[in-house]
Write a structure and sequence with these properties.
single chain, alpha+beta, Ubiquitin-like (UB roll), 5-stranded mixed beta sheet, 5 strands, globular
Length: 122
Amino acid sequence: MQGVAHIDSTEEEERIFALRVRVAGSKTAVLPAIEGLSLMELLRANDVPIVAECGGAAVCASCHVRIAARWLDQLPPVGDEEAARLDDIPTAGDDSRLACQIRMTADLDGLELELQSDSIKS
């Protein structure tokens, strides 16, 4: 067929997932998300104004997000370094996580999170 590109079925296709993000006090946006990237990397790639000063080393706690309750059990457990950083945030709760410590997977397709005011670039 003319005008139709042929895709080799042996080529590996990259799946695009959905990430539902709300920046504190704004509407929810549905953003594309690629498996394997951290939530922090995905937020930056989609021009979400996240501070993330340390670039993902879990030493600054400036990528603080809150995860919707129905997703908490699907996330990897909080590691010691992440727990220590979360303890430094006075407003952190049981639903708080650092976006740099969570990698996107197929199981997280549709994940809902809110970027907290302490992690928004001004």
